[in-house]
Amino acid sequence: MPNERRVEVGSREYGFTCDCGWSGTETGIEQWDVQRTRDRVIRCCPGCGEAVPEWGTFRPIDGLARIAKGDLRAELEAAGVYD
């Protein structure tokens, strides 16, 4: 059976699997796709770098910017959200 994108709910973290074969938890995701024209932010797969909406699409960006920290905040800063 080929790999497919999915989300697994654990006792402490969500587990994610990508088409490319990468599998891990939400703490392993450090890259985000900031889509300002669509007013959303999407998690990206660490294995292939592709945005995976099935893993969580967060909106609106201005609301997310108020609570973001760590890698997500860095991605929002790089996208110019805080300018």
Radius of gyration in whole Å, from Cα?
A: 13 Å
**Oligomeric grouping of the chains:** single chain
Mean pLDDT: 91
State the shape.
globular
Tally of helical runs: 2
Q: Could you spell the SSE succession in H and E letters?
A: EEEEEEHH
Strand content: 25-35%
Strand order of the main beta sheet, please? 1-2-3
Stretches where pLDDT is under 50 for at least 5 consecutive residues are none
Count the strands? 6
- Biggest pleated sheet: 3 strands, antiparallel
Structural class: alpha+beta
Structure, explained:
The protein has 83 residues and is an alpha+beta fold. The protein has a 3-stranded antiparallel β-sheet, with no helix packed on it. β4 and β5 form a beta hairpin. It is globular. The relative contact order is 0.18. The mean pLDDT is 91.
Quick tags:
83 residues; alpha+beta; 3-stranded antiparallel sheet; 2 helices; globular
Describe the structure in brief.
The chain has 83 residues and is α+β, with helices and mostly antiparallel strands. It has helices at 61-67, 70-78, and strands spanning 6-9, 14-17, 23-25, 32-35, 40-43, 57-58.
